[in-house]
Amino acid sequence: MTRKRISRRELLKLAGTGTVVAAAGGLGQGLLLPRNLWAAPPKIKGPVKIGYQAVLSGTLAGYGEFHKMGAVMAVEEINAKGGIAGQKVEMEFRDSTLKPDDAIKNARYFVDSWGADFLAGIDSSGQALALAPVVQQLDRVLMVTHAATEKLTEEMVFKKGIKQIFRICTPTYQDGNAAAFIAKDFPAVKWATVSPKYEYGFTCWKMFQDTLKKLKPGVPFVAESFAPFGTTDFRSHINTILDAKPDGLYSTEWAGELISMVKQGREAGLFEKVKHVIFPVGAAMDVLEGLGKDMPDNIWIAGRYFFLYPNSKTNGEWVARFRKRWNHYPAYVSETGYSSIYAFKAAVEKAGSKDTKAVIQVLEGMSMNSPAGNRVFRKEDHQAIYDVAWGKTKADPKYPFKIMGEMKVIPTTVCYNRPPFEGPGTAPPF
Amino acid sequence: MPDDRVTGRLLRAIAVLAFVAALASVPLFAGKFVIYLAMRVMILGIFALGYNLLLGGTGLLSFGHGAFYAAGAYGLGFFSLHLSPNPLLGVAAGIAAAMLLALLIGFFSVRSTEIYFAMLTLAFGMMVFSLIWNARDITGGDDGLIGIMRESIPLFGGVKISISQDSRYYFLVLFFFLLSFWAVHRIRNSPFGLVLAGIRENAKRTEFAGLAVRNYRLAAFVISGAFAGLAGSLETLLESNARPFMAHWTHSAEPVLVSLLGGIQTLTGPVVGSILFVAMREIVQRFTENWMLWFGIVLLVIIMGFRGGVVGVVRQLADRARGPRGG
């Protein structure tokens, strides 16, 4: 066996090229990222650590996966381009299990043990409300990406002054108030609802009724049926509705429960008997993909973001990148998760610090471009203001699921409650 | 042999002292998150210690103790939101609420035993859960009671002890934990505790001995409910909220699991079980997002592999090592 030996000369040559290549690499990097070499040294030290929690177990585990896809993609992109203010972004993801005590424990772990600079995520309203005082104590910014309760921003942020909380997704105003603006244009109808039997379902139905009553005085609400969490058999609820003979159905059922309700509704002929149907969170990807062709046509749906709106370059490119990375269309929680990380980036770079107080100051009133369009964090209650689309379901040969045909936008200026959230003129219509 | 007994007692006293000293020094050395976890361990420990008076002590398997935990939590919550924010009075109100509820539910449940008792308590527990869930105007529905503050403890003479910081609140939890441990120890070794053990071993024979078995069972039920109420009110002060899921059967199963884990025949079993339960979950969660699956497997292995719980097995091993000499 002959062993190939490297001569001394060859070795020197190799070493030489190696050095040249290394030097060129260093120079190239320096040229690409002048900030690191010539700009003032960054004021922030160490990596930017983000603790993200969403539901990864139980029947809604799919939601957590969609959160994760969006957030992980943002972190990958940001790190590939030099991080936040020149510092690497680190993210840890935890299962929030939808229970308030687990959310609190996770937040404490993130901040007190892992050393997180920022917190993000949270699916349920109960979790968000329970977490509020803890976040104030931990003194870290929490960007809520899914929980919709208006109490979080109205009471916790505006009235109690817990400034550490921000919400990047749409609140219940979108699901309740805005739905009433869609409903008012329908020919005179009697309304009924099947909604989730917890705070979110009650609140949205009440907002819908209050706003619609003002827009269209005398409109009758004939039946309501509330389905507890974990309902799989909706037949009794559907029958209650059918017995009242309404021609309008409003439902904030979501995820797997909406899928079950629509499938069972089809069997009962619900969509033939009730002409006007509104699902304010029906435009979620898990529902659209889950139902496929079973989603009836001409139903008004919306979400906290829909991948076909806005029709902008930013959004189009993002959806393409997302599909390439994950082989999925982005769900709304993917967009809010993704944009949260970019909101942190923008705020830290503008503040020149990871310090909570400085970041809050920048975030208040901050405007940012995101796949969902331009977002502004309202100063008073830290609610992100951006428009989302409503649309009528229709089939499209390009997609294996129903998409929004005719689209409509109810501007936030029209449908969002306004501070000070009490007294006349604070709830729509204005 | 008297010598052995003296050294045994001495060793036990030293072990207890070392344990208390270790617990008391946690806030001095450990980080914030460890302090928080230690509080969760002690609160779960109180819940399980009280619960085990019923399971290991009297031989009754209850699946409804979450209801008393919730009664303690909501009792403290209502008291502090509407009457007085004094934490000690709040805890007292929580315990009173839990005992009252335990008396009511116990009155109907202790007539049955075994599976019938378990099912009855499960049903009552879920009734309390739905009641809290549905009475939205009073209990806040699924949002629960929020914004319960941890005010200072007023002492005589206008002096106030602040417990708003976790490292200070820790000592209040520690105080109640040690108090509970001591109380359960005393109850187990009292004539009352011996009657309970008699009922566990043979209820018929105890009845023939002229004792009102049902009253004893009810008393044990109410006492264990009081500990659940104490744990619930302490957690509410810690997290500043009370939630309907505290009354859910998934939460009622926790002390059962913890007691089995540590060993139901011993005093320390539930405490060791609580430590294992909280610590293992925390460790598993750091390795995988599918923590529920792995946590379940680990629990399964311990419960099936360690008959009589971890403490039971350790004790057996110790006895075997000492066996030949002790005779």
Task: Describe the protein in words.
The complex is a heterodimer of chains A (430) and B (327). Chain A has 430 residues and is an alpha/beta fold. Chain A is 45% helix and 17% strand. Chain A has helices at residues 8-32, 34-37, 61-80, 100-114, 125-138, 150-159, 172-175, 177-183, 199-215, 235-243, 255-267, 270-273, 285-291, 313-326, 332-351, 356-363, 412-415; strands spanning 48-54, 89-95, 118-121, 141-144, 165-167, 191-196, 221-227, 248-250, 276-279, 300-302, 367-370, 373-377, 384-385, 389-394, 403-409. In chain A, the strands form three sheets. In chain A, strands 7-6-8-9-10-14-15 form a seven-stranded mixed sheet, with helices on both faces. In chain A, strand 9, helix 13 and strand 10 form a beta-alpha-beta unit. The relative contact order of chain A is 0.12. Chain B is mainly alpha-helical and 327 residues long. Chain B has 15 helices and four strands. Chain B has a two-stranded antiparallel ribbon with strand order 1-4. A two-stranded antiparallel sheet of chain B has the order 2-3. In chain B, helix 5 runs antiparallel to helix 11 and helix 8 (166-189) crosses helix 9 (191-201). The N and C termini of chain B lie close together (11 Å). The model of chain B has no long low-confidence stretch (mean pLDDT 90). Chains A and B meet through strand 2, helix 4 and helix 5 of A and helix 3 of B.
Features of this protein?
heterodimer, A: 430 residues, alpha/beta, Rossmann fold, seven-stranded mixed sheet, five-stranded parallel sheet, B: 327 residues, mainly alpha, two-stranded antiparallel ribbon, two-stranded antiparallel sheet, 15 helices
Brief overview, please?
The complex is a heterodimer of chains A (430) and B (327). Chain A is α/β, with parallel strands linked by helices and 430 residues long.
Average pLDDT metric of chain A: 89
What's the CATH first level of the largest domain in chain A? Answer: Alpha Beta
Q: Number of domains in the coordinates of chain A? A: 2
Q: In percent, how much strand structure appears in the residues of chain A?
A: 15-25%
- Derived structural class of chain B: mainly alpha
The rounded Rg of chain B comes to 20 Å
Total DSSP helices of chain A: 17
Low-confidence stretches of chain B: none
Q: What is the string of helix and strand elements of chain B?
A: HHHHHHHEEEHHHHEHHHH
Largest sheet of chain A: 7 strands, mixed
Q: Quickly count the helices of chain B.
A: 15
N-to-C span of chain A: 90 Å
